[in-house]
């Protein structure tokens, strides 16, 4: 078997120690181990293309949610399975798949070669495997990236700072034959049941049900915002009366405040020049080992 490991050396504040010697010591001598390190954003996608051309049997993403997204995106609808060694801060998808942060245990899962297919979310020309967020969710990620503290403390700090200044945005949603137009405080679309750091906004989400879970929360007053924050930390967001869930296969979202749409995708901020984007699920589009 030929295993290619795509490693982000800076994931998790560079606290991991995944080297070629370490990896070779964990596999049989008959296995071929290749390690490729990323050097810049989106480099992982290029390295995956190289690995495919080099006839890799398994391609493993070693890093955080951003690295995993890049590697997985290049493997959508391909016949090569994805392995994961979570080495980031949030690790949303890996947590949903019960892949531990311990590299030794994660490697044992990879060696098991237990291949499954999962659904993939798509927004315009980009893929997501864990979640997609608009409104305050995108603003939190923007603040989180700016303060550069890639820890749960940094995420909480970013959330608090955003909460103090955020105002709901006017969106129009097109879901099947239904049109919903409201000032939304929170719009969150999830493929997995974990968003990162063990936080769950969509506990009933299933990676292989052929649907996405859409959470819609309209405008909240100050007290409701505080209550919302408490429920998020307690993993009981379903107790919020204004939290509305819907299973969807596709939808379109349109900004009505004349500002281009910004969203977070698997924990990474994306800015657009458009007032609307389309989102859909692609069933069973990624082979993954877990």
Q: What does this protein structure show overall?
A:
- The protein is α+β, with helices and mostly antiparallel strands and 290 residues long.
- It folds into two domains: 112 residues, Probable inorganic polyphosphate/atp-NAD kinase, domain 1 (Rossmann fold); 158 residues, Tumour Suppressor Smad4, CATH 2.60.200.
- 27% of the residues lie in helices and 35% in strands.
- It has eight helices and 15 strands.
- Strands 5, 6, 7, 8, 9, 10, 11, 12, 13, 14 and 15 form an eleven-stranded antiparallel sheet that branches.
- The longest helix has 14 residues.
- The mean pLDDT is 93.
- GO terms for molecular function: ATP binding; ATP-dependent diacylglycerol kinase activity.
- This is Diacylglycerol kinase.
- Keywords: ATP-binding, Kinase, Nucleotide-binding, Transferase.
What attributes does this structure have?
290 residues; alpha+beta; Rossmann fold; Tumour Suppressor Smad4; 2 domains; eleven-stranded antiparallel sheet; four-stranded parallel sheet; 8 helices; 15 strands; globular
CATH topology of the largest domain: Tumour Suppressor Smad4
* CATH hierarchy class name of the largest domain: Mainly Beta
Secondary structure class reads alpha+beta
List the helices and strands in order.
EHEHEHEHHEEEHHEEEHEEEEE
What sort of overall outline do the alpha carbons produce when their principal axes are compared? globular
Average pLDDT taken over every residue: 93
Low-confidence stretches: none
Q: Please tell me how large the radius of gyration is.
A: 19 Å
Strand content: 25-35%
Name the quaternary structure.
single chain
What is the terminal separation in angstroms? 17 Å
Number of separate strands: 15
Number of helices: 8
Main β-sheet: number of strands, strand sense, barrel status? Answer: 11 strands, antiparallel
CATH architecture of the largest domain: Sandwich
What fraction, in percent, of the residue positions are helical? 25-40%
When the domains are counted, the total is: 2
């Amino acid at each position: 078997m030929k295993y290619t490991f795509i490693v982000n050396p800076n994931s998790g504040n560079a606290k991991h120690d995944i080297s070629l010697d370490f990896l070779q010591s964990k596999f049989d001598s008959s296995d071929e181990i290749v390690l490729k390190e990323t050097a810049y954003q989106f480099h992982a996608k290029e390295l995956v293309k190289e690995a495919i051309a080099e006839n890799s049997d398994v391609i493993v993403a070693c890093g955080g949610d951003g690295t995993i997204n890049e590697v997985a995106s290049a493997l959508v609808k391909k016949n090569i399975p994805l392995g994961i060694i979570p080495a980031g801060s949030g690790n949303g998808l890996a947590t949903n798949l019960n892949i531990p942060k311990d590299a030794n245990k994660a490697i044992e899962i990879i060696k098991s070669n237990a291949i499954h297919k999962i659904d993939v979310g798509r927004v315009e020309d980009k893929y997501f495997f864990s979640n997609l967020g608009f409104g305050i969710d995108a603003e939190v990620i923007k603040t989180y990236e700016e303060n550069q503290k890639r820890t749960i403390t940094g995420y909480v700090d970013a959330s608090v700072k955003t909460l103090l200044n955020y105002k709901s945005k006017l969106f129009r949603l097109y879901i099947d034959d239904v049109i919903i137009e409201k000032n939304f405080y929170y719009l969150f679309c999830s493929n997995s049941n974990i968003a990162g750091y063990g936080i769950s906004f969509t506990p009933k989400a299933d990676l292989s049900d052929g649907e996405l879970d859409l959470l819609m929360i309209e405008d909240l007053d100050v007290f409701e915002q505080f209550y919302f924050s408490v429920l998020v930390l307690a993993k009981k967001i379903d107790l919020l009366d204004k939290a509305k869930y819907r299973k969807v296969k596709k939808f379109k979202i349109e900004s009505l405040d004349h500002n281009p749409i910004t969203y977070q995708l698997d924990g990474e901020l994306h800015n657009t020049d458009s007032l609307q984007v389309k989102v859909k699920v692609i069933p069973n589009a990624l082979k993954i080992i877990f």
